[in-house]
Amino acid sequence: MTHDFDLVVVGYGAAGVAAAITAARRGARVALVDKQPEDAHFSSTRMSGGLFMGATDIDQATVYLDACSGGMIPVEVSRAWAERAVEVQAWARDIGIESMHAAGGWYPKLPGFESIEVYAPMPRGVDPASVDYTLPAPGELAFKGPVPFGNGQTLHDQLVEAVDAEPNVHPFFGHRAERLLQADDRIVGVRCETAEGTVTFRAGKGVVLSCGGFEQNQEMILNHLKAYPIYFYGAPSNTGDGIRMAQAVGADLWHMNQMIGRAVGHFTHPDGRDISFNISVNPPGYAIVDKYGRRFANEYLQAVSKPNFYYELLHYDADLLEHPRIPAYWIFDSRRLNARPLSGGSFGHYAWSKDNRAEIEMGWIKEADSVEEAARLAGCLDPECAAATVAAYNAACAAGEDEFGRPMSSLVPIDEPPYYCVPVYPGGATTNGGPRRDAKARILNPFGEPIRGLYGAGELGGAIGVLYPSPGANLGEAFAFGAMAAETALEDAI
After folding, report:
1. Which of these three, 428, 445, 463, is where a domain ends?
2. What angle (nearest 5°) sits at the alpha carbon of residue 99, between those of residues 96 and 103?
3. For 169-200, what is each residue's pLDDT tens digit?
4. Shortest CA distance to 468 belongs to which of 315, 346, 305, 325?
5. Could you tell me if residue 128 is inside a domain?
6. Per residue in 454-492, pLDDT tens?
7. pTM of whole model > 0.85?
8. Fewer Cβ close by (within 10 Å): the C or N end of the chain?
9. Element holding 489 (H helix, E strand)
């Protein structure tokens, strides 16, 4: 079977929706293709926190994004993103998504930080102006009290509604894109596999690849990221398909070693499934130690969801010839256990129990009457050292001064038995590497030349380097480059 469209967009998440709607509103007929079935459509967008990054000033946002990139992203690409970021809240409103200012950038130390704003989509019928809400402290994402807005599910549902309202956008679920089709040195379509057989989509104006990263591809993780193992709790469908397709037609790759990281939980369910979780060490007290029971970094970064704590987990010991912090061990007491669930669960795959008891019974959380025994049960190689470390941490809490610089508000002792210990690993939501793109979202070959008819957006080769700029940066980037890819495709085809 063959379909004819003006534009074919591969991947139905935030970037794909932005590309599809932008092209459709310019009169193009768009195929929006996704490998997942419609009743199990779990994109990175749906499994995210639902926030998206914007900005208030193009020049300052460019400076900030460039500082975050660590030289991995050309400044003109960062500027192209900044130009869209100042308009993203209005753009979202134009497709039916109301939002409110919910946070700022991650790094107050970097120039241009003040220009970054993070927006949260509001549930239908909720006026942002009616919400009584206090912004988190600069550089944090630690909400106090009930959060007055939705999450990735809220954003996903509203994006689906926006697509359904566009008669020129035609979604195709259960279509696994396998190969790009090329003729006369131009990308002219996509070949997909379905349960019924092969389907070909011809694309008169080009193909946008917005089909996510490689967080579920163990071979790519092993060969491209900075350590192993690294575990992801993001979309189960993101297996690097777009990277392979782009490589096959000559695409260059960039920052394949980058990801949005933090400490995550990774466990084996009694039914045999391996499941990864975004975990919250808050509220205090907490301590994270290495394999040998030693603290090694400021755990407050993990507590407020900062993505740079991930870098602390990657340390390689040249004498021991190993990564002594993979896994690391999170130690806490009954005060923390009883405060809230350790995780919100793995969306669509596992619902974490409200009292954490189911996870204790499955052995994911080790429980004991002493810190030493809890650490031993969890696998710490020197549980006596772990107990001594917690004792030293408790003394620091009493003194009000921590050797790793944690704020006083986080220095709550671990002294209410039983005690608990959970192994944690470097991991996160998504990877960032993929096909190199330019400031017009065109995918480039190794000589820096555009591959005609091929465009990239979102997590697949996202314009994010060493530091993740803010909460929701991935989704802000997806909206920006998705729209940009569609506009460039239609302009190039003229």
Report:
1. 428
2. 155
3. 999 999 999 999 999 999 999 999 999 999 99
4. 305
5. yes
6. 999 999 999 999 999 999 999 999 999 999 999 999 998
7. yes
8. C
9. helix 473-492
Q: To 5 degrees, how large is the angle CA 422–CA 425–CA 430?
A: 130
Look at residue 142 in the predicted model and tell me its pLDDT.
66
Q: Where are the alpha helices (DSSP H) in 304-349?
A: 309-313, 334-337
Q: How far is CA 134 from the centre of its chain?
A: 24
Q: What is the pLDDT of residue 128?
A: 86
Q: CATH code at 469?
A: 3.50.50.60
Of 375, 402, 428, the residue at which a domain comes to its end is 428
Residue 47 forms part of a structural domain: yes
121 φ/ψ sector (left φ>0, alpha ψ -120 to 50, else beta): beta
Mean pLDDT for all residues in the chain: 95
3-class secondary-structure state, position 219: helix
Average pLDDT over residues 421-430: 96
pLDDT for residue 145: 58
Query: How many CA atoms does the CB half-sphere of 406 hold within 13 Å?
Result: 31
The model's confidence at residue 143, banded by pLDDT at 50, 70 and 90, is low
Ramachandran area for residue 355 (φ above 0: left; ψ -120 to 50: alpha; else beta): alpha
Residue 154 CB contacts under 8 Å (≥ 6 apart), including other chains: 50, 121, 122, 123
Number of domains in the chain: 2
pLDDT greater at residue 260 or residue 442 = 442
Helices (H) and strands (E) in the chain, counts: 14, 20
Residues facing 190 on adjacent strands: 180, 201
Measure the CA–CA gap between 402 and 32, rounded to whole angstroms. 52
Q: The domain spanning residue 306 has which CATH number?
A: 3.90.700.10
- CA–CA separation, 11 vs 37, rounded Å? 12
Residues 386, 360 share a domain: yes
Residue 239 tokens read as 């297996």
